[in-house]
Amino acid sequence: MWHRTVSDLMTTSVVRVGRDTSFKEIAKLLAEYDITAVPVVEDDERVVGVVSEADLLRKEAAQLDPAGLLPVLHTAPGTRTKAEATTAGGLMNSPAVTARPQWTAVEAAQVMERHRVKRLPVVDEADRLIGMISRADLLRVFLRGDSAIREEISGEVLLRTLGMTPGAITVRVVGGRVSLKGTVERKSLIPVVVRLCQGVDGVVDVSAELLHRVDDSSTAPEAGSRRAGLAT
């Protein structure tokens, strides 16, 4: 099975800044290019941090209310230092959370979710910047057409990976939702089929109504076929 990787989905033309880039220049770049964060790089393109719009907003939040109506925001010393910073070196989050070009979309999405970030700099083995991957880039996986999904499930998953007879399982895909109907040789194959189909790029959901000829989940062989339903 083939999965699109970060290198397939990332943007290679990346807006980046140096440690000495000013607060206002960073704000200007975020607005001009409609992005939410920029990587901070050394002269050799090695990524040392990331400045996000949230980092810039700390300075705004730390300002006194001109009308004097809002209470003064008390912040931790580390946060206060960032709020007082005027260049990328002081504003950035370091070390940067980065991605590798060979990662799958799933790996990149999990790292974004774990660290609560919207974009990841993509780096090579020497931590040099080679691209940027965003949430929007990852969502492009789900723009894959239904016919392409169906062909991969029928050809790659069922025929070549599992060695099933063509037509043993009917595959229907509508809006990324996969429906499977048919018969497998062994009952234990049913969750395997579903799990592999779930891993196909662009699949939103899988439901299965599959019969099995042999119940290999018990010691005694089962006579005849029984219906096994599984939906996710």
Radius of gyration using CA atoms only: 25 Å
- The total tally of domains equals 2
C-alpha end-to-end distance: 21 Å
Q: What's the average pLDDT?
A: 87
Task: Outline the biggest β-sheet.
Answer: 4 strands, mixed
What's the shape? elongated
What class would the helix/strand composition place it in? alpha+beta
CATH class of the largest domain: Alpha Beta
CATH homologous superfamily grouping of the largest domain = CBS-domain
CATH architecture of the largest domain: Roll
Order of helices and strands: HHEEHHHHEEHHEEHEE
Task: Give the topology, please.
Blueprint: H1 6-9, H2 23-33, E1 37-41, E2 47-52, H3 53-62, H4 77-84, H5 88-91, H6 105-115, E3 119-123, E4 129-134, H7 135-139, H8 146-161, E5 169-174, E6 177-186, H9 189-198, E7 205-214, E8 226-231
Parallel strand pairs: 6-7
Antiparallel strand pairs: 1-2, 3-4, 5-6, 7-8
Helix pairs in contact: 3-4
Explain what you see.
The chain is of the alpha+beta class and 232 residues long. The chain has helices at 6-9, 23-33, 53-62, 77-84, 88-91, 105-115, 135-139, 146-161, 189-198, and strands spanning 37-41, 47-52, 119-123, 129-134, 169-174, 177-186, 205-214, 226-231. Helix 3 (53-62) crosses helix 4. It is elongated and about 70 Å long.
TL;DR?
The protein is 34% helix and 23% strand. The chain has helices at residues 6-9, 23-33, 53-62, 77-84, 88-91, 105-115, 135-139, 146-161, 189-198; strands at residues 37-41, 47-52, 119-123, 129-134, 169-174, 177-186, 205-214, 226-231.
Provide the descriptors you would attach to this structure in a database record:
about 230 residues; alpha+beta; CBS-domain; 4-stranded mixed beta sheet; two-stranded antiparallel ribbon; 9 helices; disordered C terminus
